Amino acid sequence: MAEVAEKTRVVAPRTQKVGRVVSDKMDKTVVVAVDYVRRHPLYHKRITRTSKFQAHDENNECKIGDVVRIEETRPMSKNKNWIFREIVERAVQI
Predict the structure, then answer these.
(1) For every one of its 94 residues, what pLDDT tens digit does the chain have, with 9 covering 90 and above?
(2) Residue in 33, 7, 20 with CA at minimum distance from that of residue 63
(3) Sign of dihedral through CA atoms 54, 57, 60, 65?
(4) What is the pTM of this model?
(5) CATH superfamily of the domain spanning 16-89
(6) Residue 83: which residues within 8 A CB-CB, separation 6 or more?
(7) What is the DSSP code (8-state) at residue 29?
C-alpha cells in the first residue's frame, strides 16, 4: 500500500536587523534607523544609506540612542511590520 507522507511546513527564519533608536515618542512603538552600505554603480564608491523602521515595543523599554535588534513580523498597523527583540547596547544617559 502507498504510505501517506506527512507534510511538514518549512518556515524560513525571520529577518532580523540591528539599528539605533531615533524616536520613542509613540506609545509601544519605536523608530529604528538601520544603516547599510551600497556601492555606487558608476564610481564604485561605498555609500552609507539609512532606512527607518517602526517597531513594536510592548513594554516601552527602548530609549533614544539604544542599539536594538528588531525582527520582521506580521503587519501590526499601516507602517509597523517589525517587533523589538532585545537591547544590544544601552545608550549613555546624561
Answers:
(1) 567 667 788 888 899 999 999 999 999 999 999 999 999 999 999 999 999 999 999 999 999 999 999 999 999 999 999 999 999 999 987 7
(2) 20
(3) negative
(4) 0.83
(5) Nucleic acid-binding proteins (2.40.50.140)
(6) 55, 56, 70, 71, 73, 76
(7) E
